Amino acid sequence: MIKNLVFDFGGVIVDIDRDKAVQAFIKIGLLDADTRLDKYHQTGIFQDLEEGKLTADEFRKELGLLCGRELSYDETRQAWLGFVSNVNLDKLDYVMELRKSYRVDILSNTNPYVMSWACSTDFSPKQIPLYNYCDKMYLSYQMGHTKPAREIFDQMLADSGLLPSETLFIDDGASNVKIGQELGFKTFQPINGADWREELNAILKR
Predict the structure, then answer these.
(1) Beta bridge partners of 186
(2) Active site includes 8?
(3) Global pTM?
(4) pLDDT of residue 41
């Protein structure tokens, strides 16, 4: 029986667009952004930021060196927000409704720039921050690991007390879903940009 839901953020709760993000980083001066940015798992300083190895300010300075000029916090933040292509209020309302029957957590590879937006009233059309849509958020840059590393799952389980056998893990990344299955989670891999509500309803009714 499913008692808990663990949602990915980018690609599930909000739609993401890697190509749009690449253009946003090129616009601020990162001409090789296409080789540096990935939809699911970052590399180099981008990965270091998402694993908490660089602070937001350290990342901004390192990115500035790559761009050949000093960048402001807002410029850097706007480039990261290039990943977000859509915030679907219907999905958010649905997740809020699910909280009446299930524990809902978020497990995300993310960074302080994206979360400074998501955890503000700018996040949703209803001016409700992301953290109001879940019981707890498990964020890679705070945990020191990114999916699909087993450590981030182990930390979440240790903190939450969740049993994988009673938990549905919802993520659009194939490698993340694979490790979730290996750890005993029930899994659902929606397609980024899809309205997955009916599919999830069907899973929960089984």
Answers:
(1) 168
(2) yes
(3) 0.96
(4) 76
